[in-house]
Amino acid sequence: MAVATVKFRLTISLIAINFNKIINININININIINNNMKAKIISLSNQKGGVGKTTLSMQIAGALSRSNKVLIADIDPQGSAVTWSSSASDESPFPAHVIGLNAAKGKVHNEIRKYVDDYDFIIIDCPPSINSTETQSALLISDLALIPILPSPPDIWASVGIVQIIENAKTVNENLQARLVLNQKQANRTLATESLAILENFQIPLAKTTLTQREIYRQCAAFGGTVFDFGKREAAIQEIESLCQEIEDLLR
Ligand SMILES: Nc1ncnc2c1ncn2[C@@H]1O[C@H](COP(=O)(O)OP(=O)(O)OP(=O)(O)O)[C@@H](O)[C@H]1O
Ligand SMILES: [Mg+2]
Fold it and tell me: Which of 136, 163, 166, 203 is deepest in the core (most CB within 10 A)?
């Protein structure tokens, strides 16, 4: 969180006439305005293809970032999966980030999100799976980073290609929007097929260095309303989520 201190020095010169003497009084006032500049970094999880891991990544990234930041998740998907996920948490161990449903804002998501930017370090937007979603387009207008989860098989990769145009359109208005593809549900100990790598080159969106493996723990987390950080010995999953968050923080620095 950046804290900026702005100092104003105000010098007031008073000339007073007292018993025929001219007295100069200088008053120096230092006004410290502490500008608690908590302007949130905004990350959208988007892909018009369904079931690629938008909600899973939103929740896990939020879990990691919440350990040292104030995090808000905006669920703009009518399915409300992020809201359902967080509400599955127990009262003793609530979901670590604040989750709100913003689907009703439709194409005005960017205006709604603006209301929260001074209160959080990160805002994560879980987008719906629809090619013509006004919610996603609106979310990308205000995002610093678009993360696009994709599944590692050629048909799944092709089915995600529509997001490229959506990102390009958003960039015409939001010039600073960065984007990364994130391979999700990769089979452990399997390298990505050369065929898949060749298709990925068509995206013209860089691939994040971190890939997420297919792990049962990610499914269990949704059922328990938690994240991998709530489940004891899950080093491998924790490591990949932390590695992804490190990349995110480096990109947004
Ligand atoms: N790395 C993973 N390992 C195992 N299961 C995963 C992984 N990532 C996601 N899943 C599972 O895949 C399914 C789809 O994931 P998720 O709901 O996050 O996708 P989505 O893109 O948000 O879907 P939708 O488009 O419907 O919103 C879920 O059952 C989830 O638990
Ligand atoms: Mg989802």
Answer: 136
CA distance 1 to 79: 32
Task: Kindly report, residue by residue over 4-60, the tens digit of the pLDDT.
Answer: 433 344 444 444 444 444 444 444 443 333 334 559 999 999 999 999 999 999 999
pLDDT value for 29? 41
Continuous segment of H or E residues that includes residue 71: strand 71-75
Cβ(136) – ligand 1 distance below 6 Å: no
Nearest ligand to residue 228 Cα: 1
Residue identifier of the C-alpha nearest atom 13 of ligand 1: 51
Looking at the CA of residue 77, tell me the nearest atom of ligand 1: 27
Question: What are the residue boundaries of the structural domains of the chain, listed by start?
Answer: 4-35, 41-252
Token couple for 135: 């919610």
Give me the pLDDT at residue 140, please. 97
Q: State phi, psi for 91 to the nearest 5 degrees.
A: -65, -30
Query: Which atom from ligand 1 is nearest to the alpha carbon of 50?
Result: 25
User: By the 8 A CB rule, do 150 and 19 touch?
Assistant: no
Cβ of 101 below 6 Å from ligand 1:
no
- By the 8 A CB rule, do 140 and 72 touch? no
* Low-confidence residues of the chain: pLDDT under 50: 1-36
